[in-house]
Design goal:
With about 450 residues, the protein is an alpha+beta fold. Helix content is about 25%, strand content about 35%. β2 and β3 form a beta hairpin.
């Protein structure tokens, strides 16, 4: 504990900068509208430290900043039917947060003319938890009292239905200093509770951090809040969902994940089933009653072999523009990413490479009141050689699988030990629980 305290003290000193100026871009990612690194960043903030003290903090609508972009860029293929150009609001398209953060920084400089020392994501759920400790905030101008229970819906209702269309997120601009004031004025015995919320938020990926300073970045990687794709050479799985013009429907969708892991000689065959239930359709808020078009990306080991898929949607989305007839620029990183992709039109799945992994991308379109399941099967050669099998299951920030089932089917062998609690029966070993954080699984065979 003492060693950790010393390490974090040094990190904090380097973070705020005891001499000089440090500027950090904050992205308020909304998990009600999932994107690969946590959610759509409809709002952003800038926090400035000078000589170790907070000098400035401001919040604004991301569209105000994106409107300053002078050059037009071709967006990712899966976004071309909803937006003609790529900007900072959609730059968190890559599952590996450091890659997304660098792209976000690039767009921020193009739009503002300024460099930043790092990018930090922040979930609005954290504010709800803080209000539970500090008490509610009365916003007379908007005729609303925000508390831990109504925060997300009240803010969304104001933005979607009540606000001036020229400044729909003005309430967030006005709210930011009030939240800081609440924290500053809280009794000192509440500070530790607030600190614990921030620590648990880092642990739960509600806060991610990227730094240009290599020492700070190495620390964030070591401590597990960098949001990078885990670079294990063992078996691996990460499911990421990107809400593409599905409003805030992810907050009323229940997601489940089942993985059948079948050991066949030295190979491992995985059959994963993603099931989603849309509970919207009859709520008082229209932003919960929309269709949910989601682009799913499944990251697996780089030598995985695709076997089949069923249940996925095969829409015929068309770009808003013919980019060959425009002078839009193409981002080099995005071009390289998409050049390593191959679309299988028969199965409606794109095979791609990302962050050292093989990826399978497909659409899952869900209407209100509907339940859908997509089954994907692939083989990973040589991952079952020897008496041990390690399987790292990484969770996307902002996404919680309320039910997660891992079935291990060992074939001729039996499992002797496991790092997770397994129930044996019907020739398989089963783990059932939630997937609300990363799960490293280690299996030892008899």
């Amino acid at each position: 504990m003492i060693t950790d305290a010393v390490d974090y003290s040094k990190f904090l000193g380097d973070f705020i900068g005891t001499a000089g100026t440090k500027k950090y871009l904050l992205l308020f990612q909304n998990p009600a509208e999932l994107r690969p690194t946590g959610g759509f960043p409809g709002s952003y903030g800038m926090v400035v430290f000078k000589d170790g003290k907070l000098q400035d903090f401001k919040v604004d609508d991301v569209y105000n900043l994106d409107g300053q972009l002078k050059e037009l860029y071709v967006p990712p293929l899966q976004l071309q039917h909803i937006t003609p150009s790529w900007a900072m609001r959609d730059a968190n398209w890559f599952a590996d947060f450091p890659v997304s953060a660098r792209k976000i920084s690039e767009f921020y400089k193009k739009e503002s003319g300024e460099d930043v020392d790092g990018v930090i994501t922040f979930s609005p759920q954290i504010v709800s938890k803080i209000l539970e400790i500090t008490g509610p905030i009365r916003m007379n101008k908007y005729g609303v009292t925000l508390n831990s229970e109504n925060f997300s819906q009240a803010i969304q209702e104001e933005i979607e239905y009540k606000a001036d269309r020229n400044q729909p997120k003005k309430i967030l601009v006005d709210l930011a200093p009030l939240v800081l004031e609440k924290i500053y004025s809280a009794d000192s015995d509440r500070w530790m509770e607030i600190f614990n919320i921030l620590v648990s938020s880092v642990d739960g990926k509600d806060i991610l951090m990227y730094f240009r300073d290599l020492k700070l970045q190495d620390f964030s990687v070591t401590k597990g809040f960098s949001g990078q794709v885990n670079q294990t050479r063992d078996d691996y799985l990460m499911v990421t969902l990107a809400n593409v013009k599905g409003s805030k429907t992810d907050s009323v969708i229940d997601s489940e994940l089942k993985t059948d892991t079948i050991f066949e000689g030295d190979d491992v065959r995985h059959r994963i089933v993603i099931t989603r239930t849309h509970n919207g359709g009859g709520t008082k808020f229209g932003f919960f009653n929309k269709q949910n078009p989601t682009y799913v990306r499944v990251l697996v080991p780089d030598d995985a072999q695709f076997l089949g898929i069923s249940g996925n949607s095969k829409p015929n989305f068309q770009p808003l523009l013919d980019y060959s007839e425009t002078d839009f620029k193409r981002d080099e990183d995005l071009v390289r990413f998409e050049e390593r992709s191959n679309y299988d039109s028969q199965n409606g799945v794109t095979v791609f490479e990302e962050a050292g992994k093989r990826g399978y991308g497909f659409w899952m379109i869900l209407n209100p009141g509907e339940t859908k399941a997509v089954e994907l099967e692939y083989r990973v050669p040589g991952k079952a050689a020897g008496k041990e099998h390690e399987f790292y299951i990484q969770r996307q920030p902002g996404l919680e699988f309320k039910k997660f089932t891992l079935n291990l089917i060992p074939g001729a062998s039996e499992i002797d030990q496991s790092s997770v609690e397994l129930k044996k029966g019907d020739g398989k070993y089963t783990f059932t629980g939630k997937l609300d954080r990363d799960m490293p699984v280690k299996i030892i065979f008899k």
